[in-house]
Amino acid sequence: MSGGSYYVPATSKWPILGSLALGGMMLGAGLQMVHGWGAPLLGLGVAAILAVMALWFRDVVRESLQGLYDAQMDRSFRWGMGWFIFSEVMFFAAFFGALFYVRTFALPWLDGEGAKGVAALLWPDFTASWPLLNPPDASVSGPHEVLSPWQLPLVNTLILVTSSLTLTIAHEALKEGYRRTCRNWLAGTVFLGACFILVQGFEYYEAYAHYGLTLDAGIYGSLFFLLTGFHGMHVTVGAIILAVMLVRIQRDHFSGDDHFGFEAAAWYWHFVDVVWVGLFLFVYVF
């Protein structure tokens, strides 16, 4: 209920249900990777998370349209979204850190360099190189070759950079009250997000079918799919969020000075775009 300048939300069941759904999804993923029979639980967990998100966001939208939120709640939402994006920065920083550690320390040590060069005794014939096509352990097969950064990865880079531009135009149009312009440019952004996902799916097919680049292709294959796969998941989530914003635009949920739902979605999308630029440079190019 609303009292004075501070809004106290009603008791909600969504946090605990969301936690249970997330736990079920992670348990299913672990069972699938280790034992190969966790797919049903994984699928149920994903479906439950999507359902909780949809119903939880529905309640938030209803509260907003009822005029229950004030300046204090707006600040709360902004801080919450800011910390969420910061957590995502740390999430990807860990993966980039793993890439940096392998390339800068682990491989040179296995080749006899540095203070821990004694590790070279494990595989004395190993020669460090990146991308690692020939892992030191003969029981692990590396990829036959790696994807060229100037083909599909470059296409996806242009797609995402363009999508940031179209989203910015949509945002500016919304602030100026040009709802039709906002809707059209936002629809273009959602379309570009879908194109990125399709291109990445085709890239994965090419990697598996013609390059021998799989999750089992040594440390390079593992890091490649870890970084690009999680990013692809974030693009998918971001495209869904923008699609929801598009529906809300069509239903006149936003005004020029009251549209933080749209703004938060834009923050998230721009973050995803920046991460991709880093991936393009350090996974594909260098």
UniProtKB/TrEMBL annotation:
The gene is coIII. The keyword Transmembrane applies. Keywords: Membrane, Translocase, Transmembrane, Transmembrane helix. Pfam families: COX3. SUPFAM superfamilies: Cytochrome c oxidase subunit III-like (SSF81452). GO terms for molecular function: cytochrome-c oxidase activity. InterPro entries: Cyt_c/ubiquinol_Oxase_su3, Cyt_c_oxase_su3_dom, Cyt_c_oxidase-like_su3, Cyt_c_oxidase_su3-like_sf, Cyt_c_oxidase_su3_a-hlx. Coiled coil: none annotated. This is cytochrome-c oxidase. Belongs to the cytochrome c oxidase subunit 3 family. It is found in: Cell membrane; Membrane. Residues 2-286 form the Heme-copper oxidase subunit III family profile domain. The chain crosses the membrane at residues 37-57, 77-102, 150-170, 182-202, 222-247, 267-285. One of its GO terms (cellular component) is plasma membrane. Its main location: membrane.
